[in-house]
Amino acid sequence: MSFEPVTIATWNFPNASQKAGEMLAAGASALDAVEQGVMVEEANLKNTTVGKGGRPDRDGNVTLDACIMDPGGNAGAVAYLKNNTHAVAVARKVMEETPHVMLVGDGADRFAQQMGFKKEELLTDDSKADYLKWLEKKEYKPLINIENHDTIGMLCIDSKGDISGACTTSGLSYKMNGRVGDSPIIGSGLFLDNEVGGAVATGMGEAIMKNVSSFLVVELMRQGKPPQESCEIAIKRIIAGSPNHKDFQAAVIAVNKKGEVGSYCIQEGFSYMKYHGGKNVNFSSDFYL
Ligand code: SD4
């Protein structure tokens, strides 16, 4: 039985969803499509929150977090990766070539080089100039929405109906050195079950991690709830536990096994891409506030 493939991705990254959608239409697996799709943004120097050109931590280091899951429930992740643009590809190697799920820091960088990834400098002239400007005041204020420039989380369903997902980021700009967010944490930034569906999250990683939001969305869909309602319950769970929820953004998007999609967030301004049947469309998400 052939399934009409679906790709969804956080924020307004049309080139990434187009890449994945076209690959799926040509018969690629969900795993290959999701990896190649998010790699488009990792390589995009204008995107200051993913891959090369991402904003550094407050000590000037660009550190990347990413994870990937395949339809078999296998998972790979890296955190605090400093010398490779394609964190998601390193995460896939962790999944496929090691007995582990997650590698961090120097070990992750060494592993990437052993796997043949070339060592790169991730701080670009532009992100360095922004950082030097930030140093003048050293104000740490995560921006609520940075439309078009944010973490990319993507879910793909291929023509066999199999689901894969990925999430990749440079994390919050000017975070503390060593800080890791939700994006590489299986269950927080990404979770999927090939029998049920998948979810990815973006926004304030600390809130998403404390609520294991992507796992929650998938478990709600497992209980039979539609993706939209599942996303709403998960975001309202974050809101209920966060008296300061007016000050940050958190968003989840989800797709179930039938290809139905949901999206919900705290603040207005979040959108997501959907590629389906040759159409690549950006949708505004429903929001709480
Ligand atoms: C993090 N969730 O590191 C990421 C950042 C993000 O929209 O998604 N920003 O907390």
Automatic annotation (TrEMBL):
Pfam families: Asparaginase_2. InterPro entries: Ntn_hydrolases_N, Peptidase_T2. PANTHER family: L-ASPARAGINASE, N(4)-(BETA-N-ACETYLGLUCOSAMINYL)-L-ASPARAGINASE. This is N(4)-(Beta-N-acetylglucosaminyl)-L-asparaginase. It comes from Salinimicrobium flavum.
